[in-house]
Amino acid sequence: VTISEPATLPSIPDEEFRARGERLQAAVAERGLDVLLVNSNESDFANVRYLSDYWPVFESAGVVVPPSGPLTLLIGPESETFATDRSRIDRLRLLVEYREAADPAYPEIDVASFRQVFSEAGVERPLRIGIAGSFATNLVMVESLRESFPDAKLERADDLLTELRSIKSEAEVECLRSAFRIAEDAIDVILEAVRPGMTELQVVGIAQQALYERGAEYEGMPQYVLSGPNSRHAISRASHRVLERDEVLQLNISARVAGYSSGVGRPVCLGKLPRSQRDLVEFGRDAHYKTAESLRAGVIASDVAESYRRHFVDSGRIDNFLYGPCHGLGLIEVEPPWMESISHYALEENMTFQVDTFALSDEIGCRWENGVRITADGVEWLSTHHMDVIELG
Amino acid sequence: VTISEPATLPSIPDEEFRARGERLQAAVAERGLDVLLVNSNESDFANVRYLSDYWPVFESAGVVVPPSGPLTLLIGPESETFATDRSRIDRLRLLVEYREAADPAYPEIDVASFRQVFSEAGVERPLRIGIAGSFATNLVMVESLRESFPDAKLERADDLLTELRSIKSEAEVECLRSAFRIAEDAIDVILEAVRPGMTELQVVGIAQQALYERGAEYEGMPQYVLSGPNSRHAISRASHRVLERDEVLQLNISARVAGYSSGVGRPVCLGKLPRSQRDLVEFGRDAHYKTAESLRAGVIASDVAESYRRHFVDSGRIDNFLYGPCHGLGLIEVEPPWMESISHYALEENMTFQVDTFALSDEIGCRWENGVRITADGVEWLSTHHMDVIELG
User: Fold this and answer.
1) How far A242 CA lies from chain B's nearest CA (Å)?
2) What is the pTM of this model?
3) Are B326 and B340 in contact (CB under 8 A)?
4) Contact across the interface for B201 and A216, Cβ inside 8 Å
5) DSSP B278-334
6) Does the interface ipTM go beyond 0.90?
7) Sign of torsion over alpha carbons B377, B367, B387, B226
């Protein structure tokens, strides 16, 4: 194995983390919350990482956000040294509620309680506790909060973080550019190496080596390497299926840089696609470019979704429609906001999206996927390589 | 890249999944629950996979377990084709409560409700709803359950799954053996390739390629490649730190086979360890073997924990104590039960553990970690290679 020199990679500066915290505290005050509790876990890591740069393994993590004063990072009992080295938030407390699912008791470790950490943050007897990261706020935390603060109302406040995270700074976009560049380079490596007889998962391994060599800190999502009928899965995991000639191989390759995740989707073929499948792949690419052309600051998201769907109808291909056309992109490769028929917000400059075009038949699915940044008059593409219909060898 | 032929790998037979469901239903009936809801998410996947073989990406998953009658797999709105292809449970329902954190509304997708799926399972007006997978049961699910069944009590029943999962079948042990063999082979590849000047994360990439090539379906946990001071992290993630000569490089390499996860921990060095560090590494290895020698069916777990701690005290090394000596091993690389000073259960044949020996100084941490299966008179080691103190080149 020959490994190239480590690359220099972008990251988010300390002052940007501080500014995020301050903007969030202003929003907490404006909503009249006594405190906001932001939670994340290993897979749904984004909200806590956005505020602290820390992302847990096994355990959960949280941030206590009072309307004013310092923030507190909450971690599980095993991550003190790790979190101290990584967190951009100085004050850090251990809570058993943030322990791992293996459910150890840690009789020898000294931990804090929600009452203590709220009190230290100047929050006594809260009546309105906002919760952001509802999908990462688990039953153990909920029961403990209810017992600790029986008079308080737990209010879902995910929108505060969505709002904050949806417009990207230049540093954030630079992390995304890097994450997309790494994913595109990994696709180069895959296209050079992939052969019939390999399994989907062996191709994942080739991708992983290429991603980490070039500076990925992790996969942005599990790599999709989906062959033949497996390409029909909108969400999936690669399997032990052996690749065959002349069938579709759907790649969605994803790197993470300083927390920011890319996803580059290409339907390729080891050989020649049957005509009807090639037609579907080409239709998908047309729909992809048509979607991208409709994006610019000021456009209403639901109009983009409606035109996309109408394009399937007008092309006599509504049976090939599954979903689309775009979803938010940032720390997580799929984040809010989506573009659906009920998405009545206007696109803004420096929002970032995945243009995610999935066309489905009875035989295959094919997905063209690229990142874009919204500009005043269109988009900046974050990935552009390999947009030919690739039939290898 | 040259990739070897795909290996034939063990898996869990259908009848074993059926038997698991039946044993769990007997326990649900015995406890007098009206229904048990078992939840998992992308990172905390074990309970749902144990019953269904399905493990989600982005979304959550659940299993509805009535005291009798068929089980139902609950999935998010985007995983229908994927879950249909993978699940060993035939009945499958889509619920918005199991959607991804990106929080799409899916206005065009037809979904079920908790009331409907409970009713289909013969559960009307439940008063006692057991919850297993409390750490993967999120606020969105909890609020929906409370609204749907205002008279019901939600009772944590994680112990029902812990009990069931803690004794391994021959098929499960065979999956673990395979996962450990793959991790040991990946360590061979790393030791051959690793050089000063590489980053920790580049070594992770080498490991990943080796793991997937040999048949891993995923990482069992994020690979720990922790150099110098980073080795002090009990839980961590590899970083962009560049490896230097003559410092410790802590490897914990982990593969997953048919859901079962391995973890092989070795402190190695690119060069020569300073004497005091080498002493710590050797002390750790002695403590590791001493722990393993104390394991057999019938032994009380807290006695093992106590002897382990006493060994640190008697050796004048209590300052090097962080935690240990063992934790459960299976689907997740860390699962219940742990062995702590308050663990008053007796070890049983075919329980599987990680013997996880961590010795910490101000400069480094070092961790020897191997899987074992408890037998009538000792243990079967699941990993044994590279137990020398390895100083490379």
Assistant:
1) 8
2) 0.97
3) no
4) yes
5) HHHHHHHHHHHHHHHHT--TT-BHHHHHHHHHHHHHHTT-GGGB-S-SEEE-SSSSS
6) yes
7) positive
